[in-house]
Structure to design on (212 residues):
């Protein structure tokens, strides 16, 4: 019989530290937040096995080791290839975990196939304006360091509109929690050029100061 605390200890010992090698927006604090939010959302779904959910949340971004473009499918592959999971889970359960990691991506062209995928996808949607802008800007400053302030602003604003604005590709799958309200609040900020520019400038200056 598996115990969630045993699996949690394995995740903390063997998996969470692997996020230290990723960009600042997908580091250890990110995966710990996703795990925490996923387990909180699971309280609304008594049919969910929290052991499966914990592992799906923990592995959801491990595919970033091979780059961002296919990280969701690479994460699923990592789940299926990790034989350590077979001490706790059946092949069917491992496939459920892998499907959930693959389905978490915001730009996915299909709805998550299971409740586990929907919960992990929702937990990964950290709808907080400052966090969203900071993570996106950190990514832009790392991968396009040649852009000046105005270039980073244009890149970020375009990405924010494509992902978070009305008609954007981000989808929310769980009615519980505060994400829908927070998304609407962020959309209002995005629509207000002065407010959004102030948010960007504040975070840009802070991140610039850290790198000096």
């Amino acid at each position: 019989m598996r115990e969630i605390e045993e699996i949690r200890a394995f995740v903390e010992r063997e998996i969470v530290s692997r996020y230290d090698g990723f960009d600042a927006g997908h580091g250890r604090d990110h995966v710990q937040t996703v795990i925490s939010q996923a387990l909180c959302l699971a309280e609304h779904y008594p049919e969910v096995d929290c052991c499966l959910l914990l592992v799906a949340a923990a592995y959801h971004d491990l595919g970033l080791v091979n780059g961002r473009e296919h990280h969701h499918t690479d994460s699923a592959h990592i789940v299926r290839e990790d034989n350590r999971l077979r001490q706790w889970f059946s092949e069917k359960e491992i496939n459920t975990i892998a499907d959930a990691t693959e389905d978490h991506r915001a730009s996915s062209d299909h709805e998550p196939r299971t409740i586990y995928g929907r919960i992990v996808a929702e937990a990964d949607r950290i709808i907080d304006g400052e966090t969203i802008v900071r993570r996106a800007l950190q990514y832009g400053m790392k991968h396009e360091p040649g852009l000046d302030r105005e270039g980073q602003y244009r890149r970020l604003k375009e990405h924010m509109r494509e992902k978070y604005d009305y008609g954007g590709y981000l989808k929310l799958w769980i009615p519980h929690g505060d994400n829908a309200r927070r998304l609407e609040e962020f959309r209002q900020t995005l629509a207000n050029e002065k407010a959004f520019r102030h948010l960007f400038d504040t975070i840009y200056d802070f991140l610039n100061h850290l790198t000096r």
Remarks:
- The chain has two domains: 4-124, 129-210.
